[in-house]
Amino acid sequence: MRTKECVAMLLAGGEGRRLGLLTNQLAKPAVHFGGKYRIIDFTLSNCTNSGVDTVGVLTQYQPLVLNSYLGIGSPWDLDRKYGGVAVLPPYQRQKGADWYRGTANAIYQNMSFIEQYDPEYVLVISGDHIYKMDYSLMLDYHKQKNADATIAVIEVKWEEASRFGIMATDSQWQITEFAEKPKKPKSNLASMGIYIFSWKVLKEYLIKDEEDQHSSKDFGKDVIPAMLRDQKNLVAYPFQGYWKDVGTIDSLWEANMDLLENEPSLNLNDKSWRIYSQNPYQPSMYIAPGADVKRSMINEGCSVFGQVDHSVLFYGVEVAEDARITDSVIMPNVKIGKGAKIHRSIIGEGTIIDAGAEVGNTDGDITLIGGFDHIKLAEG
Amino acid sequence: MSQIMGVINLVNEPDQLEQLTNYRCVSSVPFGGRYRLIDFVMSNMVNSGIEKVAVFAHTKYRSLMDHLGSGKEWDLDRKRGGLFILPPAVDETRELMKGDLYNFNRNRDYFERGSEQYVLVTRSHQVCQIDFRPVLEQHISTGADITMIYQEVDSDTFARARRIDVNPDGRVTMIEEYNRSLKQSKKVSMDMFLLRKELLLEIVERSLAQGYDYFVRDGIMKNLQKLKVHGYEFNGHLGIVNTIPSYYYNTMQLLQPEVWKELFLSRNPIFTKVKDEPPAKYNSEALATNSLIANGCVIEGKVQNSVLFRGVKIHKGATVINSIILQGCEIGEHAIIENAILDKDVIIRPGKVLIGDQTAQFVADKRKVI
């Protein structure tokens, strides 16, 4: 039987509660990003571009949109006869059924999926982050260090360090300490939520962790600390480049705005590392004689008659005459009426903004309008 | 299940597209920012419920094959039916000179194996949104042998197309050669014919036996008395694209929002091969008006009354006016391009000025560096 050297397990069950209305109807990895993508496109494209062709996607919360989006994986070239994308929801067994109780438990429940490929290594990633990374280089590093587990890390600002899983390492990148969201961080090396495990070792720890009544069944809180206690060979893999957790409205907005720099640090035009996604069939965008578009990203199927400055427009958005959009993210098929004004906002899919209506403020908090809403002209 | 099988006939397709067809056939000429010409008729067939489409390829079909692939984008990668690409099956190279009927005959199996009763024979250079189902309805109700689709036009089409005459009963009485002998007629053939499969095979057999091998000229025009040929009038937007002036004219038509909407957003989608380009990017100095911009473009300069295909870069201070810029071109800083058609991957060096004539646009060959 053929085997796979490395199988990826993509955690996509997150509810993304801090994204408010945007995740009412869909899981966080399915949230729209960057004018044409969904967040999960970045990890799936990273897999394909890294030569990882077997990806189990663990879904749980509001999976309808995500499941139909993934399909058989063809947009990411992951429609394979052997391997490819497999959607793995929780399921019923002879001795009852269970939801995924934590990230480690989700993998534990799908050990048989992994075993059928008899892999040497398992890559654990999540569908919540925006970044481009070659996992094959990380796997080389894992082998070279003869590690049991390798955790990708990135330097974050010290003031933000307490939001992440923080690692202390020695000069050889050997992990000596791991603290999940520490109040007083000892370093600013944050876990990116990307792990490579030698499967034999991981399997042993997943089984042990499952038996432990006190465990919360989480990689960061339980499995990694247990491996550290047993003095397993845990190494950090330092990553340089763009990486962003888009778990809050502010960070989602910011990450979209990051793309609008003249030379953005996340280059989407890189032909050697394309970000794949499902492409709806839309014509080229139409930009009318009186339109003015600057510092923006606009997808196919849009028609712009008004002004767009420093904003991201998804497909099928209509901007009527004299409408003005600044510093905003406009999700698919939003219709913006004549003279409407939108500032510092995220407008959910399919929403209608009536002529003359105003949304958002030029400074202060980001305004969020959910999907399929209707914003009318304020009275008086 | 559809009663119609589609035939997209590329054999000797009228072609005066000059440089644009140096390395490709008419059907694979890029059009409208992100399509190739064949996308329109293919999508129209699929959107009309046709599930089996044969493309009779003839010459220079490398880019066409690459574009069509398995037919997946049109949902034509089927176990039963789907897309059939049929290049010439000749024993000797001189047979390549023969007409379409010869090629139909060589691929009789395609016709005979299908259970469909009707065949729709089209070309690939008609840009429109047409539903073929009402054509079949009319075909059945009139009891015609052949139904041919036409449009009444008020202005010049700038293209190579046959004019026809239709009498008040709807019967086609004259089809001209491409010589404008029917000057007074406003009716232009769209080169789309619906007929029973048996009749088509009969025409193939009889014409070849008599030494004739052209479907329209020999099979239909010579038999206008014997066969009941009816016209079906199409009223939607139509662009016939097989000359440089018609290519330019019909591309610029897309800049009218009503035309853009009718072709692309009103009814069914026009399918095409996916490229995975990011959304178009406008930088702080961008100044784009009245244009169609495809994904993957980066705009740092001025673009006006133009159509930009995927992945075009307009550098700072550059100006593009009244032009069609195909995929992957790069316009250097402070260059000026006016009234031009640039084929794929053309590079314009910084500061270069290229101004074509309003009626005779400058055309640059693929991959040229200017």
Which key features would you list for this structure?
heterodimer, A: 380 residues, alpha/beta, 9-stranded mixed β-sheet, 6-stranded parallel β-sheet, 8 helices, 31 strands, 19% helix, B: alpha/beta, Spore Coat Polysaccharide Biosynthesis Protein SpsA, Chain A, UDP N-Acetylglucosamine Acyltransferase, domain 1, 2 domains, 7-stranded mixed β-sheet, 5-stranded parallel β-sheet
Quick recap:
With 380 residues, chain A is an alpha/beta fold.
Please, could you describe this protein's structure?
The complex is a heterodimer of chains A (380) and B (370). Chain A has 380 residues and is of the alpha/beta class. Chain A contains eight helices and 31 strands. In chain A, strand 2 and strand 3 (37-38) form a beta hairpin. The mean pLDDT of chain A is 93. By secondary structure, chain B is of the alpha/beta class. Chain B has two domains: 4-264, Alpha-Beta Complex (Spore Coat Polysaccharide Biosynthesis Protein SpsA, Chain A), CATH 3.90.550.10; 281-364, UDP N-Acetylglucosamine Acyltransferase, domain 1. Chain B is built from nine helices and 28 strands. In chain B, strands 5-4-1-6-11-8-12 form a seven-stranded mixed beta sheet, sandwiched between helices. In chain B, strands 14-17-20-23-26 form a five-stranded parallel beta sheet, with no helix packed on it. In chain B, helix 3 packs across helix 6. The N and C termini of chain B lie far apart (53 Å). The relative contact order of chain B is 0.13. The mean pLDDT of chain B is 94. Chain A binds chain B through residues 34-36, 74-75, 262, 268-269, 274-277, 279, 281-301, 303, 312-314, and chain B through 32-34, 72, 255, 257, 260, 263-265, 269-272, 274, 276-296, 298, 307-308, 311.
- Overall geometry of chain B: globular
What is CATH's topology name of the largest domain in chain B?
Spore Coat Polysaccharide Biosynthesis Protein SpsA, Chain A
The span between the termini of chain A is 73 Å
End-to-end distance of chain B: 53 Å
Helix tally of chain A equals 8
Strand order of the largest sheet of chain B: 5-4-1-6-11-8-12
What is the percent of helical residues of chain B?
10-25%
Radius of gyration of chain B: 21 Å
Report the radius of gyration of chain A as a whole number of Å.
22 Å
Give the helix proportion of chain A (percent range).
10-25%
Q: Biggest interface: chains and residue counts?
A: A-B, 38 and 40 residues
Counted by DSSP, the helix tally of chain B is 9
Whole-number count of domains of chain B: 2
- The CATH class of the largest domain in chain B, by name, is Alpha Beta
Low-confidence stretches of chain A: none
Number of strands of chain B: 28
**Gross geometry of chain A:** elongated
